[in-house]
Amino acid sequence: MLWESLARPNSASARTWERSNSLQSLERCGPKAVALYQYWNARRGIRPMPTRADIDPLEMRQWLPRLTLVDVSPDGEDFTYRLVGTQIVDLLGINPTGRLVETAWPENLAPHVIGAYREVVETRKPIFCQQFNAWLDDQKPTAWAMRLPLSSDGEEVDMILAYISDNVGMLSQL
Length: 174
Prior knowledge:
Helices cover 24% and strands 22% of the residues. It is of the alpha+beta class.
C-alpha cells in the first residue's frame, strides 16, 4: 500500500487548540511537560536553544514513547519526522518516520501542527499547545503538546523536539 493512499483519520471540530510561548501556559500542561522543558532548558545553557547532540536519549526514557524529532527544511517550510515514539505511532495508526508531518495528521489538524512548527522556526522559542473542549466551562486543557527548538549552528532552528501529553488519546476520539 502506498503512503499517499492511506486515509487520514477524522477529527471532531468541538475541540480547539491554542498555542503560546508563555511559561504560564507550560505550567498548565502539568509536571511531565515542566520536567521536559527543564531538561531542554538546562541543555541549552545560555544559548537560545540546544543542539541535537546536547540531547541524550538515555536521559529521556520517560518521554520517548510520546516524543518526536522533526527535521526542518532549510527554508523552514517543510517538516519531516526523523524519530517517532511508539505511542505516537499507535496514536496515528501509521509510522510516519521519514515522511512529511502534514501527511500524518487529519486534514483539519495538519494546519495547526504545521503552524506550531513554523512558529517555533520563526520565533526560535518553545511553543506550548493546549487543547480545550468547547463544551466544558472550566477551560482547563484536556491535552497539550510542546515544541522545543534545536539548532546545529545556534542561530537557525533545524530540528524540533516535540512531545504530546498522555491524555491526547486516539485521534478518532479527538
